[in-house]
Design goal:
There is one protein chain. 31% of the residues lie in helices and 24% in strands. It is an alpha+beta fold. It folds into 2 domains: 2-290, 4-Layer Sandwich (L-amino peptidase D-ALA esterase/amidase); 298-417, ArgJ beta chain, C-terminal domain (Ubiquitin-like (UB roll), Roll), CATH 3.10.20.340. Strands 1, 4, 5, 8, 9, 10, 11 and 12 form an 8-stranded mixed β-sheet that branches. A 6-stranded mixed β-sheet has the order 16-15-14-17-13-18. The chain has a 4-stranded mixed β-sheet with strand order 2-3-6-7, sandwiched between helices. Helix 1 packs across helix 2, helix 6 crosses helix 7 and helix 8 crosses helix 10 (336-345). The longest helix has 21 residues, at 270-290. The protein is globular and about 70 Å long.
Length: 421
């Protein structure tokens, strides 16, 4: 698996085209309308997971309806940035549907085979007319090169500072010579830098404008198998990250399979495919946190020895969402007391007298007191690195969790203090 610093066309899965245009939604005039289509006689097969926020954007509502109506068939993905189309009432729903109808007319599919997404500011009327008017130009922008794929990613960026993509390749027959075996390709693209604490659920779950992830593969698979693979990949990746603890109204992860490789997702291929999909998702999740608004340190929380895996995640989230912990990380302050306190109020069951804590490999707390070998200067120096791990062993069982988060800086406050003005 590789992060795509320089995306090559040969790494892209067959059966898709991508493109993007300027529809005038963003005040900056940058690319703000993206599309991906499944080429060929039939639509791609899709699986998705959405936000579990009870407040959801119009495209989340419409996208869920469309997947249910078609049984997972997706012919086109339509993404706009600069407007979340959330808290826009019935006009927002109608505008979203109107853009899907326009796309369907342009690409010769039925309107509920169009999957919509939006990202941007909440509560601003959705300019559907701009999207509809730009449809011919959007159609003309489509292609299957790396430049086309990159334009798709750039058009959905908001406060992101970099393109986020990852790819993997799976041999259809591991026993065959690698040069001769048929290949299945997976390519993923993501946007997100703030309002990031995804809590994704299945399409039928209760209603989770900021993290959008699109995963493309040329394997042939049914929607049921794709949904299972996606759910398994999402939990240790997107559901195990947080930048600021805010779960968006628009979060969406969509997996599309074109079948263009001619290779079916068989029982034999599934383990390798699932592993590759998981690696792509984890890479994208890492890239999202690393590009978080104002982030200067990405921190992996390795919580182990919990009574259950659920308890381990409770501790990880409490620490990841603590402003006291996050601000300490911004200045490389090894204030382990804040870590212990957050674990204590997390709701997890453990005995503080059995807990051990390490910051960037430096022992800081052991069995109820400061570690005998705690070296504050060494811990501070280790925390100066852009990425490091904080390990907590709760001494209560075998439950564990890896959770990726970041510091909280003055730059994050600056970006978000006047986001709408």
């Amino acid at each position: 698996m590789n992060d795509d610093a320089e995306l090559k066309a040969s790494l892209l899965p067959a059966g898709f085209q991508w493109g993007a245009v300027r529809a005038g939604i963003k005040a900056s005039g940058n690319l703000d309308l993206a599309m991906a289509i499944a080429r060929g006689a039939s639509a791609a097969v899709g699986a998705a997971m959405f936000t579990t926020n009870r407040v959801v954007a119009a495209p989340v509502t419409v996208g869920r309806r469309h997947l249910a109506a078609t049984g997972g068939r997706v012919a086109a993905v339509l993404v706009n940035s600069g407007n979340a189309n959330c808290a826009t009432g019935e006009p927002g729903i109608e505008g979203c549907i109107a853009t899907c109808v326009a796309a369907a007319e342009s690409f010769g599919c039925i309107f509920d085979e169009v999957f919509p997404s939006s990202t941007g500011i909440i509560g601003v009327p959705f300019p559907a007319e701009k999207v509809v008017a730009t449809m011919p130009e959007l159609k003309a922008s489509l292609g299957s090169t790396e430049q086309h794929a990159e334009s798709f990613v750039r058009a959905m960026m908001t406060t992101d500072t970099r393109v986020k993509t990852a790819h993997a390749e799976v041999s259809a027959d591991p026993a065959q010579d690698a040069g001769n075996a048929a290949k299945v390709r997976i390519w993923g693209a993501a946007k997100g830098a703030g309002m990031i604490h995804p809590q994704l659920g299945a399409p039928a779950a209760p209603p989770h404008a900021t993290m959008l992830v699109y995963l493309f593969t040329d394997v042939a698979a049914c929607a049921e198998h794709l949904q299972a693979a996606l759910a398994a990949a999402v939990e240790p990746s997107f559901n195990s990250i947080s930048i600021d603890g805010d779960t968006s109204t628009n979060d969406t992860v969509l997996l599309l399979a074109s079948g263009a490789s001619g290779v079916s997702l068989s029982r034999e291929l599934s383990p390798a495919f699932d592993a590759a999909l998981g690696e792509v998702c984890r890479s994208l999740a890492r890239q999202i946190v690393a590009d978080g608004e104002g982030v200067s340190h990405a921190v992996t929380l390795d919580v182990r020895g919990a009574a259950t895996a659920a308890d381990a995640k409770l501790v990880a989230k409490a620490i990841a969402h603590s402003p006291l912990c996050k601000t300490a990380w911004s200045s490389a302050d090894p204030n382990w007391g804040r870590l212990l306190a957050a674990a204590g109020y997390s709701g997890a069951t453990f005995d503080p007298a059995r807990v051990r804590i390490w910051i960037a490999g430096q022992p800081v707390f052991e069995y109820g007191v400061r570690a005998a070998s705690f070296d504050e200067a060494a811990a501070h120096q280790a925390m100066m690195q852009p990425e490091y791990t904080i390990t907590l062993d709760l001494g209560a069982g075998s439950g564990e969790c890896l959770f990726l988060t970041c510091d909280l800086t003055a730059e994050y406050v600056r970006i978000n203090a006047d986001y709408s003005t």
